[in-house]
Amino acid sequence: MALAAMVILGALIWLLTSQTPFWEPKATLYTYVHDAGGLATGAPVRLNGIPVGSVSAIELTNLPNPRMFVRIAMDVRQKYLKDIPVDSVAGVAAESVLGAKFVNISRGTSPVHVQPGAVLPSEPSPELENLMRRGFNVLDSAQAILTRLDRIAAMIERGQGNVGKFLVDEELYRRLVATIGEYQKIAATITSGKGTIGRLLNDDALYNRAQSAVAGLDSVIAGLQKGEGTAGKFLKDPALYDEARASVAELRGILTDIRAGKGTAGKLITDEELYRRISNVTESMDKLFTGINKGEGTLGQLVVNRSLYENIDGMTREIRALLRDIRANPKKFLRFKISIF
Fold first, then answer.
1. pTM
2. Distance (Å, rounded) from C-alpha 197 to C-alpha 119?
């Protein structure tokens, strides 16, 4: 019974994994290639992508022709032989870069179909070569990335760079822990309602005031949209807009006249002669002030001569004292002596 159960189990496994039923007749076809490219026995055989059989054997031929170093035997369902012309070409292909290999038969155009035991010509599969080439490029790129990651990991282990210092520097770790502690204190203070931010988050009265302010701002915006107030009229009143536009147009006209040299401002900006006169006056004033700073002339002496300033200041004080005496005792200074000859 155990032996029978094992036989039944093996038969079920074979039926589930086999691509063709064992009772369906098959015919063997052959093809020769330079390199099997990792093809294994049991690999599928496809006719233009449609499964028609499997590879039954792969062996070396020891033939001198480089294109016939390997012979591949294929068990093809006999019902598909009529769909394989004699000029069909077989080749090793791959499902993906790392996928399984299979034999793909490219259907020809000859009206004569193959017979059992026929040899199909083969050609190098550019798809397989391209896939292998891309696979090598991918592996090279992966190797380069792994090498760079290994260098980065070594730098981190040595404590180099920001990440390395972050992982191995005890001082940085203590600072980070202290900073986190400070943030926790700040969060606790805010949660408890202390400080400005804490009150802002926890004080209902402040929230109500903020809500009132927002409501007031909303009412102001609503008034503007209705055209209330000066700003609202400016936004809604077409006459005010037309006046502003006219004023801007007049201002543009004034600027145009100024650029054209019209009027006093225009001449001041564009008249070269007026510019030279102003420049001469400015130069004369500069010379005058330079002379005054050097002490030249009466004004210069008055500015830089300390003794002259003190004399004038003393004389001014004496005149003020004399005027005070005159106001206090005018008879003392207004005596007249009359004599008759």
1. 0.36
2. 87
